[in-house]
Amino acid sequence: MVEADWRKVVTALHRQATRPTEDQRSIAAALGLRLSSRTPEPVAAALLKRRLQPALRLAAPRHFSEAEYEYLAGLADSVGLSVPNPDGLADRDELDAWIWVARARQSITHLRRLKPRADDVVVAVDRRTGGDRHGVVTSLGATGRLNFKGGRGGHTWPQFVTEILRPGETEYAEKCRLAREEVAARITRPHLVSQGDLKRLAPWKVEAPPGLAALEALTDALNAATEERPMQVVVEKHPALLANMTSGHHGTWVIPQVRFSDHYVADFLVASDTSAGLRGVCCTDR
Question: Side-chain half-sphere of 162: how many Cα atoms within 13 Å?
């Protein structure tokens, strides 16, 4: 989820960091689990998962180390959050949930400080180099992250912002120029997929492998079809059937009826986003 209004992000984060949802309370009551009205939503989720683990055959709870708890304690102290002692935490999922709550508090504090809006320029600490990093804000993520113009995953967290400039303020134009230069410097491989490309591809993205219904529909079509069209229809309805023709860790898309110039049409183009860029395979009988 992305949002343009920082106040809406703060409101949502505050709600999640201070109380469970009504659904969580209802489930806890049905399970006989005591859940305080002040239990943060992520912590409530971790507690419910722990209670349901045997019944739902979920993965066994993971233990946390002393160093992990020390990190939580230090982070919680920095934002004034009271967390259970090590013996009061059931597993790593619960510990991770408290870390999320502490980070949410951090984001709330700094979003209120900055009041960021689209087209603001921020100067932030570059955690890799320790120097300054510049970015033009486009939106906010659900966790308070500031997203930058230029795509390619450009962003920062509000706690790392040291300066913010509004359009029309002194040095705004100069900071925008620096932000553009930094975006250009990061694009060492311009053939890689941008955020704009991903938005345009979104209607054809395959989110999961084919299920039983898709496989059975394909089998029925193979057994009954006397021409190509029924097969085309089945695959258009169940594009996951073709998604494994190429692999990419960042997404796979199956696009029907892709035209190449005036003479060639592929039945399907299967594309995947890899660390080397976008790669594709054409499927056609022509």
Answer: 10
**Do residues 115 and 6 lie in contact, with contact meaning Cβ atoms separated by under 8 Å?**
yes
Query: Hey, which residues does 280 pair with through a beta bridge?
Result: 271
Look at residue 189 in the predicted model and tell me its pLDDT.
56
* Number of DSSP helices (H) and strands (E) in the chain, helices first: 10, 9
Considering Cα of 187, then 192, then 196, then 199, what sign does the dihedral take? Answer: negative
Q: What are phi and psi of 66, to 5 degrees?
A: -60, -40
Cα angle 119, 189, 3 (rounded to 5 degrees) comes to 30
Encode pLDDT of 19-42 as tens digits.
Answer: 999 999 999 999 999 999 999 999
Strand partners, 134: 123
Strands (E), the chain: 2-3, 121-125, 132-141, 146-148, 155-156, 161-165, 252-260, 264-274, 277-283
84 CB-near residues (< 8 Å, 6+ apart): 98
Long-range contacts of the stretch 190-196 (C-beta < 8 A, 24+): 191/277, 191/278, 192/152, 192/277, 192/278, 193/250, 193/273, 193/277, 193/278, 194/151, 194/152, 195/151, 195/152, 195/153, 196/151
CA dist 240 and 211 (Å) reads 8
What is the per-residue pLDDT across 170-207, written as a single tens digit (0 to 9) for each? Answer: 999 999 999 998 887 776 655 566 667 777 878 888 88
CA–CA distances in Å: residue 20 to residues 37, 39, 80, 112, 163: 7, 6, 20, 23, 35
